[in-house]
Amino acid sequence: MFARVKAFVVGVGVGIFVAPLAGRETRQLVLEKISELFELGGERIDNLESELDERRTEQYSATEPDIESETETLVDEKPA
Fold it and tell me: What is the DSSP string of 13-75?
């Protein structure tokens, strides 16, 4: 058990001396990176929504009947 405590203390000591930034700076950097990820995620979601809207519009346009040609057909076929 003493060996584990000794290893923990040595690990913490090495971490303190090797750490490139202070705790406050590290937390700030982590928060900035998390914010960037959320922004990128939000942009990606917006892009996907736009793409889905475009595809829905294209699909609806492709399946929508041509009202003018149908009207002309009905007018041409009126009973005598």
Answer: HHHHHH-SS-HHHHHHHHHHHHHHHHHHHHHHHHHHHHHHHHHHHHHHHHHS--HHHHHHHHH
